[in-house]
Specification:
Number of strands: 0
Helix content: over 70%
Radius of gyration: 24 Å
Distance between the termini: 59 Å
Largest sheet: none
Number of helices: 6
Amino acid sequence: MFWFFLTTPVAILLFCLVVFFCVLVLIDKLVQLLESPIFVHLRLQLLDRAHPQHEALMKSLYGLLMLLPQTTAYKTLYNRLTAVSSLHSALQGGTNQKSGGGGGGGGGGDSSSVQYETFTKQFADIQIRHRNARWERQRESSLLITENSTV
């Protein structure tokens, strides 16, 4: 079938458009997956500037944003990246103002970072509890023979 597209320039253009459309559909599905609950850890990495792959992740998502036409997937990804960027700007601006104010302002920045770490740790603990509860429910509903049952 590929040889058919090599016969005329119009056919080659049509082939390129079909391939490009398929790629756009796949990127749209990827953006929808990124917004699903299974990728909550990836979205949390967007918030964590200290994460080693934060910069690469942001560049990748902005690259995908540049490829997408202005559809709902574009708007969703744009809103996500805008929110992350404005959060980082607000946090960076707030720490610069507090640290520039002298010694007293630095303590306020430390308490907000401690509060952020506390919230992050609490969120991770809750996620672990949910995962353990889900595993327990799956184990209870399993068809495998348990230790208490007799054959």
